[in-house]
Amino acid sequence: MSVYAIGDLQGCLDPLIELLAKINFDSSKDTLWFTGDLINRGPRSLDTLRFIIALGDSAISVLGNHDLHFLAVTSGNTKHTKHDTFEELLAAPDRDELIYWLRSRPLMHYDQSRNIALIHAGLPPQWNIAEAQTYAHEVENILRSDHYQQLVTSMYGNSPDHWDPALTDIDRHRFIINCFTRMRYCTAQGTMDFKYKTAPGTQPHSLYPWFTLANRKTLDTTIIFGHWSTLGFQHECNTFSLDTGCLWGETLTALNIDKQNIISVNC
For a tag site, which of 44, 159, 182, 237 has the least CB within 10 Å? Predict the structure, then answer.
């Protein structure tokens, strides 16, 4: 039995099928962990989502910002952008089932036996792993409720950008969502910045990749994430970054989480 973590797909099904063949994936004994952003911007969002759902318990995926954006658009109060490519999803006869499946995905998957967490983007330095799980569950419970539309249509925005346990309502939920699905850079104190998206070394000196902060309380937990295509693959500070730019014609990467070796295919 092997467990493979795979970076952002964004509707790129063909490279995924090629990658699964390369790792000799067997759904009867192997498990796939997806870093989120299963859909949007790529050519086959509908096919990709159906393919992963069909894997059943062999596939675990966390939510990414593009997955949440799709839920916001389907709520009827958010317009899709000119770059969105989920028209087939919106018109699919099984659309309601696909929406329900996405709403049921977690923001974080934590494997206690391995002490490994799977997320889409980042974690603020103030949270330990138990707190991160608690805050993820707060949002997940709303996503799975009858009131999820209000959450996904009010999640947009960059504030608040610093954690305060006293945050309430949408400010609290927006901060949690932004950490798990949008975070890249932050200050040494954990104040998030959403302007800079390029590779480390190009940002202002006051900003740091979130995973490099020495005061991060999750340093003892291995964290696997995606989201940051300009970062590419990296293994640093007990984290693995797996968005290697499949959408942009680069590669799709899988990490065997027990052997810690990577396998990639060209896109």
Answer: 159
